[in-house]
């Protein structure tokens, strides 16, 4: 089992940037496929990005492609989400997620508590 804790959320103006981080203490971090999701008020949680165990392969939702970048540092047990060119539509609670098993990119077994990102117009 892995515990996840997100950080880096906050308030930013449209067009600005934020970098989210997710820490996962433990010696087995590199065994986990990591992902980011978000949930806006009144909406269902949606997939944002994922990366493989090495971080060498990434995949993004169309809504964030070209603006967001997922990366991981297995030595530091962290996965990051660099968010650029933010718009008010990116306002949501962002969740870090992890799984060890092979499954759909939308399926994860462990979740962090989330961090709020608010983009003002």
Task: Describe, in plain words, how this protein is organized in 3D.
- The protein is mostly beta strands.
- The protein is 0% helix and 47% strand.
- It contains no helices and 11 strands.
- It has strands at 5-7, 10-13, 18-23, 33-39, 46-51, 58-60, 68-73, 78-83, 92-99, 110-111, 115-120.
- Strands 2, 4, 5, 6, 9, 10 and 11 form a 7-stranded mixed β-sheet that branches. A 4-stranded antiparallel β-sheet has the order 1-3-8-7, with no helix packed on it.
Question: What would you say about this model in short?
Answer:
The chain has 121 residues and is mostly beta strands. The chain has strands at residues 5-7, 10-13, 18-23, 33-39, 46-51, 58-60, 68-73, 78-83, 92-99, 110-111, 115-120.
The secondary-structure class comes to mainly beta
Low-confidence stretches: none
Task: Please state the average pLDDT score.
Answer: 96
> How many distinct helices?
0
* Count of individual beta strands: 11
**Terminal CA distance:** 40 Å
* Amount of beta strand: over 45%
Identify the overall geometry: globular
Question: Biggest β-sheet: count, sense, barrel?
Answer: 7 strands, mixed
* Helix/strand order: EEEEEEEEEEE
Helix fraction bin = under 10%
What radius of gyration results from the CA coordinates?
13 Å
Name the descriptors.
mainly beta, 121 residues, 11 strands
Ordered list of secondary-structure elements with their pairings:
Elements: E1 5-7, E2 10-13, E3 18-23, E4 33-39, E5 46-51, E6 58-60, E7 68-73, E8 78-83, E9 92-99, E10 110-111, E11 115-120
Parallel strand pairs: 2-11
Antiparallel strand pairs: 1-3, 3-8, 4-5, 4-9, 5-6, 7-8, 9-10, 9-11
């Amino acid at each position: 089992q892995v515990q996840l804790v997100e950080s880096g959320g906050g308030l930013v103006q449209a067009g600005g940037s934020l970098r989210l981080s997710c820490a996962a203490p433990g010696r087995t971090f590199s065994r986990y496929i990591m992902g980011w999701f978000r949930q806006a008020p009144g909406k269902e949680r949606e997939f944002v990005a994922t990366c493989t165990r090495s971080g060498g392969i990434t995949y993004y939702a169309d809504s964030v492609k070209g603006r967001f970048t997922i990366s991981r540092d297995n030595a530091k047990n962290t996965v990051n989400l660099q968010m650029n060119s933010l718009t008010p539509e990116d306002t949501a609670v962002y969740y870090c997620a992890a799984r060890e098993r092979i499954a759909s990119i939308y399926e994860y077994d462990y979740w962090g508590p989330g961090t709020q990102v608010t983009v003002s117009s």
